From TrEMBL:
PANTHER family: INOSINE TRIPHOSPHATE PYROPHOSPHATASE, INOSINE TRIPHOSPHATE PYROPHOSPHATASE/HAM1 PROTEIN. It comes from the Bacteria. Homodimer. This is dITP/XTP pyrophosphatase.
């Protein structure tokens, strides 16, 4: 069974990836599970560039393993795609969801709901070997609410309203979110590509 190392220690993300790729003969491991302790600087200008930087850096240190990296975030139309690749550190402090959400809300103050459209984007790169690399991207469109709603999820989920479900990502069950999220959509595309190789 081949090993697939996910360039992340985000438990929520690892669980989702293991679940979606369970039909393949792969042992899916987080960086921690693979005992890899590398901090990769993500200095790309797009989500795909960052996914590539992470995947290639980790691939250099693992032998005979596949490596999957993703980068994702929120792009708000009226803010010209902000926060974009800075989604996790929008407020200047990496991973502070509360401050990031506050900054986004203050930037959208006074903007009517119909103009608060945006999308979550997830770019993924899977290195099978040095000659075989798969790139996929998944997206989900929605609107930014005026205040946080819901206790599930993380990041911008409490502000991201999805019209088809009539609720924010943070108001959805894990099953609902995993069926439509940007990461789920990217992983579905990845599965189709993987079938050609496994």
């Amino acid at each position: 069974m081949r090993k697939l190392i996910v360039a992340s220690n985000n438990e929520h993300k690892i669980k989702e990836i293991k679940q979606i790729l369970r039909e393949f003969p792969l042992e899916v491991l987080s960086l921690k599970e693979a005992r890899i302790n590398i901090d990769v600087e993500e200095n790309g200008t797009t989500f795909m560039e960052n996914a590539h930087i992470k995947a290639s850096e980790i691939y250099k240190v693992v032998e005979n393993s596949m490596v999957l990296a993703d980068d994702s975030g929120l792009a708000v139309d009226i803010l010209n795609g902000e926060p974009g690749v800075y989604s996790a550190r929008y407020s200047g402090e990496h991973g502070n969801d509360k401050k990031n959400n506050e900054k986004l809300l203050s930037k959208l103050k006074g903007v009517e709901f119909s103009k608060r459209s945006g999308k979550f984007i997830c770019a993924m790169e899977l290195i099978i070997d040095k000659d075989k690399i798969i790139n996929v991207q998944g997206e989900i469109k929605g609107y930014i609410t005026e205040k946080e709603k819901g206790d599930n999820g993380f990041g911008y989920d409490p502000l991201f309203y999805v019209p088809e479900f009539n609720k924010t990502m943070a108001e959805m069950s894990e099953e609902e979110k995993n069926s439509i999220s940007h990461r789920a959509r990217a992983l579905e595309k990845l599965k189709e590509e993987l079938k050609k190789y496994l």
